[in-house]
Amino acid sequence: MGTIRAFAPATVANAGPGFDVFGFALEKPGDFVEAKRVSEKGVRIASIKGDNGKLPKDAGKNTAGIAAQLVLGMLGKNAKDGESGVEISLEKNMPLGSGLGSSGASAVAAAVAVNELFGNKLKRGELVLACAKAEEAVAGFHADNVAPALLGGFVLVKSYSPLSVVKIGCLENAFFSVATPDFELSTKKARSVLPKEIPMKEAISNWGNTALMIHALHTQNVKLFGEAVNDAVVEPRRASLIQGFYDVKKSALEAGALGCSISGAGPSVFCVSENKAVAESAVKAMQEAFSKNGVESGAVVSKMNVKGAAVL
Amino acid sequence: MGTIRAFAPATVANAGPGFDVFGFALEKPGDFVEAKRVSEKGVRIASIKGDNGKLPKDAGKNTAGIAAQLVLGMLGKNAKDGESGVEISLEKNMPLGSGLGSSGASAVAAAVAVNELFGNKLKRGELVLACAKAEEAVAGFHADNVAPALLGGFVLVKSYSPLSVVKIGCLENAFFSVATPDFELSTKKARSVLPKEIPMKEAISNWGNTALMIHALHTQNVKLFGEAVNDAVVEPRRASLIQGFYDVKKSALEAGALGCSISGAGPSVFCVSENKAVAESAVKAMQEAFSKNGVESGAVVSKMNVKGAAVL
């Protein structure tokens, strides 16, 4: 078996109207995990790169480590002889707390690598719960990042108890631009600005748009998808946590993007475009808008990821 | 041209989770309108059958009459010579205030008949606004009944200003049972029990289910559609307005129905089943449950209507 290297992609949770239920995977960026069997039982994290020293190397406190432990347990590898332990190395390629599902990608890459290391006995769908539990350790129990990172495409979390997800499909001709401002926004803080009650009118707008978004996916209609990226509930309440958000959004739409909102809990902002040229103009415009607001930002243009995490 | 006879079907608005945005058409029951050209300008209602004398014969106060007037106006028939006026006869086949889009069906049948009478110059989609305006006179501006009655199948109202609807498709293999208890529930009263604010948690449940319902429609998955007939927001608040509602719902599900909720503003209750035999058992069980609660009820088993209103 030697060493297994796995990739798990960044994800855009919520996708505008679908707070807590929608998420889709990008082709890039993403995290890498290398896993190898060792004789010492359990999971050990050998190294972490790209986190600026911020992540714990204790396997029980790191989403990659927790996911690896849970998958080992599912494989029944806790109490067996031989090389039943795992040593993992994590290589992060996206900032923490950026709204791109960074902690989820690490969990997914680790889960996929460990599963592969022991003969790929578990299906992707079976790994969702373990990865969601790993996420729980850092950002509450949620699956709108780990499910699309595992399965690829656009995913609906249709139930949390029990956890049940459905892969809707992939918007094949769309291009997504993501601008990630250079500051961290914790999911906890981003959740703290959300009220327990919301106006019925706003809720109706969002359930119309989640429905429209699924229709857009099934009809491969990028324009309609852009129209559905319209969040009356969460975006207005989180906008103030992202310096210059409305300027960034305006600049993306003026550059030709069809819809724009916050990626996950933010502060990353994403938009959707019908072609690559527009997506590249849009992301430049978004970066400039952030810059005018005193914030530097990273930029990515990516299609939707069809297959999800991959063993390399 | 002579006389035109048109049919418009009953509709199930909301469909569970999609309050104010979803509606679908049934094959039966439905209203009929006969329209003929007359030399007197404007619209006159010659007769109304099946309403127990409850509906106004003043064309300006009756949804069929208002829709006919608006369509005449769109056709530019207000000020021309010759037989530019219309006389309509309305035949109602469903109770008023029953939650089956009764007033909307009358408006749609009239609009379609008048359009046909003058050469069918307007497309179905162009009639939606006129019919929604006619509905406004009796039940507030809404399109979740008239749009499916006009277009057939399952419709999403994606915007109210401007009014914009999209036909999603038709769940071809599903059977719908509807039990209509023998009392009237006004839309106004049914709306009065809804709060202006709702818990975020309930809203999230509904936007997950509207998304799931659209996915079910696109994949022709009746079971998933039934799962999505799950309304955390409106149903619990309106249940007490419908005597025996929870007994009726329980009996439908126990008979094998896959999902059950209130049709439109109620008091009709609908459920969805995978085959006709189950749908018929379910509707009998629903009627018995109503009966045990001291309410008699009418029953219909119908497939989803593919084409909407029809000229006969």
What does this structure look like?
The structure is a homodimer of 312-residue chains. By secondary structure, chain A is of the alpha+beta class. Chain A has two domains: 3-170 and 307-311, Ribosomal Protein S5, domain 2 (2-Layer Sandwich), CATH 3.30.230.10; 175-302, Alpha-Beta Plaits (2-Layer Sandwich), CATH 3.30.70.890. Chain A contains ten helices and twelve strands. In chain A, strand 3, helix 1 (63-74) and strand 4 form a beta-alpha-beta unit. The first copy, chain A, is globular and about 60 Å long. Chains A and B meet through strand 5, strand 8 and helix 6 of A and strand 5, strand 8 and helix 6 of B. Strand 8 of chain A pairs antiparallel with strand 8 of chain B.
Which parts of chain A are unreliable, with pLDDT below 50 for 5 consecutive residues or more?
none
Q: What oligomerization state is this entry in?
A: homodimer
Work out the count of structural domains of chain A: 2
Strand content of chain A: 25-35%
Secondary-structure element pattern of chain A, one letter each: EEEHEHHHEEEHEHHHHEEHEE
Number of helices of chain A: 10
Q: Largest contact between protein chains?
A: A-B, 37 and 37 residues
Q: Could you tell me the radius of gyration of chain A in angstroms?
A: 19 Å
Please give the CATH class of the largest domain in chain A: Alpha Beta
Q: At CATH's second level, what is the architecture of the largest domain in chain A?
A: 2-Layer Sandwich
Sheet having the most strands of chain A? 7 strands, mixed
Q: What is the name of the CATH topology of the largest domain in chain A?
A: Ribosomal Protein S5, domain 2
Distance between the termini of chain A: 13 Å
